[in-house]
Automatic annotation (TrEMBL):
<keyword id="KW-0812">Transmembrane</keyword>
<feature type="transmembrane region" description="Helical">
    <location>
        <begin position="242"/>
        <end position="265"/>
    </location>
</feature>
<feature type="transmembrane region" description="Helical">
    <location>
        <begin position="202"/>
        <end position="221"/>
    </location>
</feature>
<keyword id="KW-0472">Membrane</keyword>
<protein>
    <submittedName>
        <fullName>Uncharacterized protein</fullName>
    </submittedName>
</protein>
<keyword id="KW-1133">Transmembrane helix</keyword>
<feature type="transmembrane region" description="Helical">
    <location>
        <begin position="285"/>
        <end position="306"/>
    </location>
</feature>
<feature type="transmembrane region" description="Helical">
    <location>
        <begin position="64"/>
        <end position="89"/>
    </location>
</feature>
<feature type="transmembrane region" description="Helical">
    <location>
        <begin position="37"/>
        <end position="57"/>
    </location>
</feature>
Amino acid sequence: MTATLVWGVAYAGFGLACVLSGTSLSHFGGDAEGMGWAVVAVGMTAALISAAVVRYGMRPTLRVLLLSACALTGVMAFSLLMDVITLMLGQGVDSPASTANKALAAVGAVLLAATSRSDRSDHLPAVPDGTAVPKPSAAPRSVQLAAWVGTLAFLPYAAMKTYWASGGTFAGVAGEEMLAVSERNGASGIFLALESWGLDPTALLALLGVFLLWGLVRPWGQVFPRWTPFLRGRRVPRSLPLAPALLGAATLAPYGVVGIGYLALVTGGAVTMGRGDFPSEGDALLVAWIGITAFAVYGVALVVAARSYWLRTRPAA
């Protein structure tokens, strides 16, 4: 609770500093004050609620307010995963301040969620070290089916990106043209080097995402962190696989679902979509359907798998 209180004050201070310095927290710049004041409001609200919990203890009303603030910070952290992927590929983000805001908001969402359940965890009976996490188990068949669907949804996307990286032509664009577009858009040397070797970085990240997905539904996913030397022989915290899973689910699921709605409108002729670097709008739409469908289906599968993992690894009461 104290950590949440400190975070709220620090988050509000961050927003105020951005307002006073004229730093925009929008991903695309502009509107320097609006988003900054919103951050101040959310941070101060979270701090006041946390102070009330410290003073009066957890009450039903305070729990609802904490969860509401958690939802708000979760919205502010939206698309953090995209920035993380960009940084992993050695590229700079469009707005460092916006990325910092998303990272702070993600931390706040975790703290607020934990605080809302603090009174319940305090009354759990103590268990010896190493026995809090149940024996590794597989997820139910329905959850594993969702994992299969999420995995298969990425196959067309990975095949398309790998085909381009190997020099093939798809949707009217050759691999050399895609490499030139990436270079023109500021892709890093690492990204361009992998592309020149026929390895698309985003396809490799999709493979890593599938590994995470199956780690959440299979027994080995509850013990694989112990394979690393610095964790061997120690109790593995549940948040180790859950943190990237929740981050991915919170970003990809809404991004993909909203994207499918938009693409459906484009397909139906209700709205138009720019063709970008493709020869026609139809080519751009085809590529968009492949990518957005993969994000949507995988994101939903990640939500299902993360929930199953959470339930299967709950400490025994």
